Amino acid sequence: MLQLISELASRSPWIYRINAGSCNGCDVEMATTALIPRYDVERLGCKYCGSPRHADVVLISGPLTLRVRDKVLRVYNEIPHPKVTVAVGVCPVSGGCFRDGYSVGADIDHYIPLDVIVPGCPPRPQAIMEGVLKAVGIWRTRLEEGVCSHS
């Protein structure tokens, strides 16, 4: 047990959130997973960070709007490898209710590979927690495969 705790503490995944033009419904639910003890992601060994350069897991919400596309891609490229991308809600995957809007371009997966999809509009905090747990599993597998995290 002590060995497991020391392994988790030595390299816990950090989470970074990107809003790609959402209505903020998903962002409110992601904040719930960060602030309310019942859904606290820190129980999974994760911690939200304020810089993409420290992140291991990125949560993306909203359709990729034309106005923020270049900024989102620039921030995404600042995240070191191995990184795991979680689409939160239906908007990153299909555009959701904004799909045919004048300000929405192609789906996010045309620009950024999605590893985990958390469906819902907005998804419930339990679903976001499950998505983060899957992402952590993928991230740990990539670490074990020898992909350098900070190269």
Automatic annotation (TrEMBL):
The keyword Cell inner membrane does not apply. Transmembrane segments: none annotated. InterPro entries: Complex_I_20kDa-like, NADH_UbQ_OxRdtase-like_20kDa. Keywords: 4Fe-4S, Iron, Iron-sulfur, Metal-binding. Signal peptide: none annotated. SUPFAM superfamilies: HydA/Nqo6-like. Its cofactor is [4Fe-4S] cluster. Residues 23-134 form the NADH:ubiquinone oxidoreductase-like 20kDa subunit domain. One of its GO terms (molecular function) is metal ion binding. The keyword Iron applies. PANTHER family: FORMATE HYDROGENLYASE SUBUNIT 7-RELATED, HYDROGENASE-4 COMPONENT I. Belongs to the complex I 20 kDa subunit family. This is Ni,Fe-hydrogenase III small subunit.
